[in-house]
Amino acid sequence: MKLRPFYLILLTSYILLACSPSLPSGIMDEDDMTDVLVDFHLAQGMAEAQGENVDVNRYKYIQAVFKKHRITEAEFDSSMIYWSGRAEDFTHIYDNVVTRVQAQAERMGLEMAANNQDQFASLTNEGDTANIWLGKDFACITANPVQCVYSFTMKADTTFRNGDSFIWRFNTQYVGRSMNNEAIALLTFYYDGDTTACVTDLLRTREKNEIRHTPGRTLDSLNLRSITGFIYLPLIKGADQPKPLLVSQMQLIRMHKKQPIAPKLPVDTLRRDTLQVDTAPKQKERLTPLQVRESQPKERKIHVTKENPNPIRPQKGIPQRTNRRRGR
Length: 328
Known about the structure:
single chain, 8 helices, Jelly Rolls, 9 strands, elongated, alpha+beta, five-stranded antiparallel beta sheet, 32% helix
C-alpha cells in the first residue's frame, strides 16, 4: 500500500512533533520570547532617551510590554530562566533580538543618537586605541548556582605594551524589578613578579558600565601577562531573589601610553658663510696686574697761581726798595 505524498508529509510532521520535547507550562516558545525581548529592549531605550525619571519610565514601559503580549512578569522571569539555561537556543534567540532591535532603533533614532555620543563605538582591533574583545557579545546571568557567574580570560600578546590602559565596557539590564538587583564586576591584571591589580564595581540600575584601569608608576615598567574578569550575581536568601541580568555590547578597550615628543632642534639654513667681516664681538684679553693698575684713574694735583688782588705799588717820591743783599 502506497501512501500519497500529502499523507506522507502529514505523518512526518506528526512524528517530529511527537518526538520534540514540549515546553513546560507557562514558558513562552522561541518566537514569543523573541518578540517580548525586542519590545523589552526598545522600552529600555525609550526610557533612557528621555533623560528624566528614567527608573519610573522604565517601569511603565516594561509593564506596557507585558500588557501588550498578555503575560505577567512572573511568566517572563520563568521563561528567561528556562531559555538562559539552554545556551545554544538562547544565543539563537538573542541574535534575532539584536538584529531586530538595531533595525527598530535606527528607525526611531535611538541607536544613531547613542553612537554619535560614543567615541568608542566604531573602534577596531588595530591602532593605539583598539577594541581587543574576543569573547561573546551577550550573556545572561541568573541567581542560581550554575549560571550566576560570567567570566573571561585573555592572555597578553605582542601588541601589548608597558603602561597600557584598559576599559571594560558593557551594557546591563535586569529583567524585572527587585530590591536585591545588585551584581559585582571584577577586572584583574596579572603582571610579572606575581604583581596584580584589581578593579571592582557594583552593577545596579545603571545601563552603561565602564571599568577602567590605568597603571601607576610601579606598574609602568612591568610586562602584563594576562587579564581576567567576571560578573557575579549573588544568591540571596529569601523570596525576593535578584532578577536575571542581561549583559550585552561588551568591549575591552586597550590604549597605548603616549610617548613623549622630543623637542625639535633649530635647523641651520645657511650652507656657507657669506660675510667677509667677522661681526661677532671679540672677547677682551685678560689684563696683567700692571695694566690694571695703570688703567685705574689717578689723582692729579694742579698748581694754581692766584693773582694778588691788592698789589703793593710804590708811591711817588719814595724810592723803590731794592734788595740790599745784591750789592754785597
